[in-house]
Design brief:
GO molecular function: acetate:proton symporter activity
Keywords: Membrane, Transmembrane, Transmembrane helix
Number of helices: 6
Distance between the termini: 61 Å
Mean pLDDT: 94
Family: Belongs to the acetate uptake transporter (AceTr) (TC 2.A.96) family.
Protein name: GPR1/FUN34/yaaH family protein
Subcellular location: Membrane
Order of helices and strands: HHHHHH
Strand content: under 5%
Largest sheet: none
Shape: globular
Number of strands: 0
Helix content: over 70%
């Protein structure tokens, strides 16, 4: 009588943490767009291109990879904010090529306010996660969306400059978070506190 002995195959997921890519996409896109709000340069093709590739593709890709690893927060946040960047690029491109009328200030204020509400809800979730750098990014991102909503509702150029500086700080915070995640993982210890 022969016995059939089964073997088990163990699959080990060696997929890297994609969150640093997501924070890099957010940080670089936000810094570059915020510099245009401050008045360093006008909104031009570089802004649209970075919105699509840095903000959009990098964050959606990071979101999918985080989702694959079972990180529902990062998967949801990066995917949603990546899609935000795609929609922002669409709002800039479609009127320029004649596919749609440019959005009114009121419509843009509503668009940005809704994103602010979503960001606030995600900010609440970061309180449970407890990573201070992550909380900083979401607090400043929430403030940025609300400021930009008010700018679009009122047309205030002075407030746009303030929003630009808030966006610059948020973007640098996102880049700090990305760098910290990479450095800490590479060194196997906390090199950059998050």
């Amino acid at each position: 009588m022969s016995e059939n002995v089964g073997t088990a195959t163990v699959i080990v997921d060696k997929t890297a943490n994609a969150a640093p890519l997501g924070f890099t996409g957010l940080g670089l896109a936000a810094v570059l767009l915020s510099l245009s709000y401050i008045g360093v340069y006008p909104v031009e093709s570089m802004i649209v291109s970075m919105a699509i590739f840095l903000g959009g593709f990098a964050q959606v890709f990071a979101g999918i990879m985080c989702w694959k690893k079972g990180d529902v927060f990062a998967g949801t946040a990066f995917s949603a904010f990546g899609l935000f960047w795609f929609s922002l690029a669409g709002l800039l491109i479609m009127p320029a090529i004649g596919w749609a009328e440019a959005s009114s200030g009121t419509a843009m204020a509503a668009y940005l306010f809704i994103w602010g509400v979503y960001t606030f809800v995600m900010l609440i979730v970061t309180m449970k996660i407890g990573v201070r750098a992550l909380q900083f990014v979401f607090v400043t991102l929430f403030l940025l969306f609300i400021l930009l909503a008010v700018v679009n509702a009122t047309g205030s150029t002075g407030l746009l400059v303030i929003a630009g500086y808030v966006g610059l700080v948020m973007g640098l915070g996102a880049l700090y978070t990305a760098l910290g995640m990479v450095m800490n993982e590479i060194h196997g210890k906390t090199v950059i506190p998050l």
